[in-house]
Amino acid sequence: MDLFMGDSKTTLLDQVERELFKDDRVIYLNEDISSYTIANVVPLIHKINKEDADVPVENRKPIHLHITSYGGSAYDGWQIVSTIENSKTPVYTYVEGYAMSMGLPIFLAGHKRILGRYASLLYHELRGGANGTRQDLKRLDKEYDRLQKIYDDYITSKTSIPQEVLETYQERVDDWYIGFEEATKYKMYDESF
Q1: Bridge partners of residue 115, in order along the sequence
Q2: Which end of the chain is more exposed for a tag (fewer CB within 10 A), N or C?
Q3: Is 191 strand, coil or helix?
């Protein structure tokens, strides 16, 4: 339980719930993606991989990551994606309600992706606010373009969505809410329920 003691947002109840769910290997990501989310998700995946070190990969019991998130920080989201991808213990990702913005690539990172029939996914151009000198803004614009390319490339690599479709939504500066039928069309999940 000491994994979570350093975070002032984590309550004793949160810690008890995590201990109760650890045997089932269930992790809930049900908040905005931030450094707080990393502190709650990443250490659990690492801990389970450490516990499984002597178990052959094909015999490991999967981790079940249930996602309900409006999105959040791209930097923090990519750390979770990297952790999932590098996990030797399979991580199954589930969306029963919604995975939006950075929640989408986290869902797509799963070794097996399970989508509920009434779930919603959301793609949009990355957003953020900036201030500072003109030079600061130029640097931020360059970084924004880099992150957008990573985001788009990842989505197109994990689905059958063509880049042109993503560009259409970017040009219109529009949110793309993806329901079950479109998710099926674009091969965004492996199983449904």
Answers
A1: 95, 192
A2: C
A3: strand
The pTM of the full predicted model, rounded to 2 decimals, is 0.86
Beta bridge partners of 122: 100, 177
Residues 6+ apart with CB under 8 A from 41: 27, 29, 65, 80, 83
134-158 helix and 163-171 helix, angle to the nearest 10 degrees: 140
Per-residue pLDDT of 71-99, as tens digits, reads 999 999 999 999 999 999 999 999 999 99
Q: How many CB atoms neighbour CB 40 within 10 A?
A: 22
What pLDDT band is residue 3 in, cutting at 50, 70 and 90? very low
The kind and range of the H/E element at 177 are strand 176-178
| Burial of 66 per CB tally in 10 Å (0-12, 13-18, 19+) | middle
